[in-house]
Design a protein that fits this description.
This protein has helices spanning 9-18, 35-50, 102-108, 114-118, 143-154, 171-174, 178-191, 197-202, 221-227, 229-238, 247-250, and strands at 51-54, 93-94, 99-100, 130-133. Helices cover 38% and strands 5% of the residues. Helix 9 packs across helix 10. Among the domains are: 1-55 and 129-154, no CATH class; 173-250, no CATH class. The strands form two sheets. Strands 1-4 form a two-stranded antiparallel sheet. A hairpin with a 4-residue loop joins strand 2 and strand 3 (99-100).
Length: 251
């Protein structure tokens, strides 16, 4: 919302305090910032991994610094050949016929970047560059896709095929980094504060603890996250993308 609704009151207050002279993407975060802003910082770091410029006239996009290359690895150019004064993506574009200056691109860009640049189709009408979300075909940001980006950034690339070792230990969890384990402990601490039906009864907000989703049993923390049919359905969908512990290890 800080990007989509920059004119909102909350966005203007945060901008005036934390990044008055630059855009949100270029903001530097002070070490003594509030918890709210630190939460924004973490979300922004994830957002930066998937934000990509769609090229219109190329006048907003810095050719060597910004992310604008459509590929699975780095979204930036690998670098330049020798010294080059070119700064903007608009410079290697022939503005008359809206085409790439192929000769100039071969002259200043690395060989691995050339085909990636030429693959980008330029609009045949005058239009501005705009930011999009790389991990959705529609270019529209979604919580589900950024969740996958966050998970991939936390999981080691050499994860095995099983969550358990031959001795029965769940070795998968020992492969997570310390930072992830700290966040996991934080989530477990939040576990008992989730507004389940049982917790709502304790706070005298409800008089019936039966789960309103499945209607099978009382909704405590274990039911909400593990045994509810909706939670099981979600894990089944996740298993299409990631390695998760088997159901019998959870239930």
């Amino acid at each position: 919302w800080l990007i989509s609704f920059p004119d909102s009151l909350c966005a203007q207050i945060l901008k005036a305090k934390y990044f008055p002279n630059c855009d949100l993407i270029d903001a530097v975060f002070p070490s003594d910032s509030s918890r709210t802003w630190k939460a924004v910082e973490y979300g922004l770091q994830l957002l930066k991994k998937g934000l990509i410029w769609r090229i219109g006239d190329g006048k907003k996009v810095k050719i060597w610094r910004d992310q604008w290359i459509l590929r699975e690895t780095s979204l930036k150019l690998a670098g330049q050949k020798g010294r080059c004064r070119m700064r903007w993506v608009s410079e290697p574009i022939n503005q008359e016929d809206r085409s790439w200056d192929v000769g100039l691109i071969y002259q200043v860009c690395q060989p691995c970047d050339v085909p990636e640049i030429l693959r980008i189709k330029l609009p045949q009408y005058q239009s501005e560059d705009f930011l999009a979300w790389h991990y959705e075909k529609s270019g529209v940001f979604s919580v589900w896709s950024v969740y996958k980006v966050a998970l991939k950034s936390q999981l080691p690339s050499n994860m095995g095929a099983s969550s358990c070792s031959a001795s029965g230990e769940r070795s998968i969890w020992r492969r997570f980094g310390t930072q992830f384990q700290i966040r996991l402990r934080f989530l477990l601490g939040v576990w008992l504060k989730v507004a389940t039906m049982c917790n709502r009864i304790t706070r005298k907000m409800e008089n019936n603890a039966i789960c309103r989703i499945c209607g099978l049993e009382e909704e405590d923390e274990f039911h909400a996250f593990i045994s509810c049919t909706r939670a099981q359905e979600l894990r089944d969908r996740l298993r299409l993308e990631w390695l998760l512990p088997a159901e019998n290890l959870l239930v």
